Amino acid sequence: MSAEYKVALTFEGADRIDIACRADEDVITAALRQGHLLLSDCREGSCATCRGFLVDGDYDQLLPHSPHALTDAEEEDGIVLACRLRPSSDLVIDFDYPADRVGRYEDGTRNGQIVAVDRVADTVARITVRTNAAQDPFQWEPGQYLQITLPAVGATRAYSMANTPDGGRELEFLIKLLADGRFSGHLAADKALGEPVRLRGPYGQFVFRGEPRPVFVAGGTGLAPVLAILRSLAPATEARLVFGAAQESELFALDELRSLRQTLPHLDAVVTVERPTESWSGATGPVTDHLDPIDPTRAYYLCGPPAMISAAELRLLAAGVPRDHIHTERFLETGDQQP
Ligand SMILES: Cc1cc2nc3c(=O)[nH]c(=O)nc-3n(C[C@H](O)[C@H](O)[C@H](O)COP(=O)(O)OP(=O)(O)OC[C@H]3O[C@@H](n4cnc5c(N)ncnc54)[C@H](O)[C@@H]3O)c2cc1C
Ligand code: FES
């Protein structure tokens, strides 16, 4: 049996939560096991969301992580990634956010049914799931996601809600169709309408933090949580959106974006296509070509394929945007992992 250590988590040097952490588990997982959802996104050392300061204690070596999330020099200064840290002694870790941002992890499971599947682009489907009337509707924050299990194919995947929580039982998802995808391939083959699903969550910290003049950058179905956030913004918000797809035939939700301009009159939306046909008259190139003018005082919300996010993040950091102004949701391949 693995050794177990006491880990004191403090928040802005003040409020404190004590957890136990085994030598063979990371701090985020241990906290989750004990009902505390610390700020974290990727849980694999690439997003930097879980950074904290090691006030006291030891560990042997952080689990593999990206230098973009934590450099060796930062680690020498005591910064750690909680999702990559397994203790070898009792620890004290301080996080640079208030304790009220720590969520309570509750095993919220619901049953539901796929009540609509609409092809909205060559490679994208909008699915509507209705949860069981005998269970309370889900409550979530725009930007969060659920783990959806499709028993017909025995696959569980993470998908972000594109609609806003209104107390109802309908959930809207925008899903990229991969012909050989266990989950999305079943949708692509038109076999999913009417099928039962199990849903668990909500999860995720890709939620709007209320900054003035936010900028949203979405690649492909990365638009789903961004749409949910945009749909919930106050009308006076001066927001910018850069939405990109590889080809015009992969664009979707353009009508929604047009109607959002009515409710958000100060929304500046750029839709860009990487490989346009001759008939395309809009912006061209990857989303990273449309970040200018980069303003380090604005908050940036990036969602979509991991490579797109890393490229955008590098550009923003190089232009002087502080790391804590950049919020990311990487659509990592979820495979059959459970949170
Ligand atoms: C927090 C989070 C939220 C997410 N939200 C969404 C969402 O709102 N909409 C959405 O479409 N996806 C989303 N994803 C991704 C989603 O969970 C699945 O990983 C994805 O749909 C593939 O599942 P699948 O069963 O169809 O394919 P799999 O059977 O898992 O994979 C099939 C093949 O496709 C490859 N592959 C997997 N993902 C991709 C990809 N994105 N592009 C190209 N090839 C790929 C695999 O390597 C494999 O070869 C999210 C992921 C995370 C972590
Ligand atoms: S959650 Fe730890 S680096 Fe992403």
From TrEMBL:
Pfam families assigned: FAD_binding_6, Fer2, NAD_binding_1
The organism's place on the tree of life at top rank: Bacteria
Alphabetized UniProt keyword annotations: 2Fe-2S, Iron, Iron-sulfur, Metal-binding
Family annotation (PROSITE patterns): 2FE2S_FER_1 (PS00197), 2FE2S_FER_2 (PS51085), FAD_FR (PS51384)
Cofactor: FAD
Ranges where the 2Fe-2S ferredoxin-type domain occurs: 5-99
Domain FAD-binding FR-type: 107-209
Single GO molecular function: oxidoreductase activity
Gene3D superfamilies, A to Z: 3.10.20.30, Nucleotide-binding domain of ferredoxin-NADP reductase (FNR) module (3.40.50.80), Translation factors (2.40.30.10)
Protein name: CDP-6-deoxy-delta-3,4-glucoseen reductase
Organism: Mycolicibacterium pulveris
Gene: ascD
